[in-house]
Amino acid sequence: MSAPIRLALVGMGKIAHDQHLPAIAGNADLELVATVSRHGEPVNGLPFFPNVEALAASGVPVDAVALCTPPQVRRAIAQFAIEQGWHVFLEKPPGATLAEVAALHDAATARGVSLFASWHSRYADGVEPARAWLAAREVKRATITWREDVRVWHPGQDWIWEPGGFGVFDPGINALSIATRILPRPFFVETAELDVPSNRAAPIAARVAFRDIAGSAIAMDLDFRQEGPQHWDIEVETDAGTLLLAKGGSVLTVDGAEALAHDADLHGEYPGLYSRFAEIVRAGESDVDVAPLRLVADAFLRGRHIAVEPFVE
Ligand code: NAP
């Protein structure tokens, strides 16, 4: 086996600690060599830097970086990393705009490094079985319901409410990363309504009507104000039964009968992402699918913005 890929983790917030550190530790193809964050402290006694410029200047040998900062600041860090000759793993969404992701992809290709636009929800246990089941069916309609309590899941994350933070589309894009993987036909935005708190720049709720190229309707309901039971569900009605992919893609049922069950929320997702990252680095390839980001961008382009009551955390 070749030497492990020496990886630095950048942006040591919630997802870096909850998912990236354990997934990297569990992958023999990767070796964590440093962490980078403006605040915080070293992990396991490893070198710790306030920014990627200091990491590059340190002489610590690095092959790749995984970027877990908010999307608004990710492009500049990724561009710098590519210029160093480092492979780059981007947390989702891969950028704040489509054009910046395209520019990064071009830069990575020119520099001969791998760029990975990661979509963790695509690695949930039910996603590939759902894709296989739907491939042989005729989709009549689909409903995406992604309703979660922002105070529970995103406490103190002011960036989410800023331009480029996506608001409720920050989790909503996870639903679209699944839908673009499992639905057999391309689909596009027809109409959208975005509820934007009067004191914030990004939507707290949204309703998006998509249609696929054969005319089937796909409705998406996103809401950050959900209290009580939380919903991360995609229901697809077909000519041969109804598929429900629940709990963020981890529980699959067909006509009410459980086809696959897992109680782990994200446990399989990040190991899957890092295996894929190691695979593309070894193969000298990139993996950059912007389909989910394109649909979110189109919802903002096509949508009616509706002012709603202020959101105070
Ligand atoms: P977070 O807890 O706010 O962490 C982001 C980290 O990035 C911060 O701790 C911060 O650390 C660093 N950072 C660098 N520049 C920043 C800036 N200008 N403003 C704010 N923070 C800055 O966010 P997160 O939940 O980990 O999410 C990060 C990314 O992962 C997002 O794109 C999100 O969509 C994605 N993600 C999150 C989850 C989740 O469940 N939370 C799940 C999957 C994916 P320093 O201050 O130390 O630099």
Structure at a glance:
Helix content is 31%, strand content 28%.
Features:
313 residues, alpha/beta, Rossmann fold, Dihydrodipicolinate Reductase, domain 2, 2 domains, 9-stranded mixed sheet, 6-stranded parallel sheet, 9 helices, 31% helix, binds NADP nicotinamide-adenine-dinucleotide phosphate
CATH architecture of the largest domain: 2-Layer Sandwich
CATH topology annotation of the largest domain: Dihydrodipicolinate Reductase, domain 2
* Alpha-carbon Rg, integer: 20 Å
Bound molecules: NADP nicotinamide-adenine-dinucleotide phosphate
Q: Strand tally, please?
A: 15
**Spans of 5+ residues with little confidence (pLDDT < 50)?**
none
What sort of overall outline do the alpha carbons produce when their principal axes are compared? globular
Describe the structure.
The protein is an alpha/beta fold and 313 residues long. The chain folds into two domains: 5-117, Rossmann fold; 124-263 and 297-308, Dihydrodipicolinate Reductase, domain 2, CATH 3.30.360.10. The chain has nine helices and 15 strands. The strands form two sheets. A nine-stranded mixed β-sheet has the order 14-13-12-11-7-10-9-8-15. Strands 3-2-1-4-5-6 form a six-stranded parallel β-sheet, with helices on both faces. Strand 9 (205-212) and strand 10 form a beta hairpin. Helix 3 packs parallel to helix 4 (98-111). The chain is globular and about 55 Å long. Bound molecules: NADP nicotinamide-adenine-dinucleotide phosphate. NADP nicotinamide-adenine-dinucleotide phosphate (NAP) binds next to helix 1.
